[in-house]
Write a structure and sequence with these properties.
About 35% of the residues lie in helices and about 15% in strands. With about 325 residues, it is an alpha/beta fold.
Length: about 325
Amino acid sequence: MRTILFSSQTYDRDSFLAAEQPPGIALQFQDARLSLDTVALAERHEVVCAFINDDLSAPVLEQLAAGGTRLIALRSAGYNHVDLLAAKRLGLSVVRVPAYSPHAVAEHAVALILALNRRLHRAYNRTREGDFTLHGLTGFDLVGKTVGIVGTGQIGATFAKIMAGFGCQLLAYDPYPNPEVQALGARYLELPELLAQSQIISLHCPLTADNKHLINRQSLAHMQPGAMLINTGRGGLVDTPALIDALKDGQLGYLGLDVYEEEAQLFFEDRSDLPLQDDVLARLLTFPNVIITAHQAFLTREALAAIAETTLHNIAAWAAGQAQNLVHG
């Protein structure tokens, strides 16, 4: 079964080739992002394996179906980038990786918190230049601080356990309370209450039509002045331009992003020799209390191995008529 992996990086090739190979699956790795300009590369491939920034809109899906594709195998848990109605109309099955390593993403969120709080990025640059002063590097103890967790699925629950270990007070917002999180002492509140009571807010929910721009000018105004916001979920959860004003007036004291709403044309590419055309991102990068990483929270050896194994298993199960982890079939 011919399978093409779009947006494949060196680490994708390494992890997929290291995984146990089900019989009958022939892998082709393609660096290019899937789009209308590159969809012809998938012709005569029964399976297209896509990542988070690949274009799986109706026009692309129509071209894929016309070229013989029957299965979209996502290398991600999220599927907001897939036009599921179009997939159903075209008879395309869609499978995903519902869980790979919640620890990878949760631990990256904690890394952002620690780096922002203790100004590690500033201290690193300063000492490399021979400046060993400490002014402007004062942080705060995490113990006793209130942490608001938006989304308490597997990743949010793992994050909650880590922050409980620091001695933090936990608040949570999720339409479906998680008993595991409640057992840690977390209190579930409505979002405005959580924002008003938390010194640190971390986003761990999927992106849906209902929660797009969950964090916006109005919700930022509910936060405590100087609060910290962390987003390792999806870029569209945050109205990014609204962050700039909140940072300028001090309403937002710290910002850590691993995802960005307009990341599709930027992340996973080396653009260091090119002018940054995204004015919003360029402005955010000027703030000393902002750390942005390029969607690397998932990037651990354990997570990559789990993604490869689950994806290959999904393809083999679908070929055998026993599809698993279906989003649509």
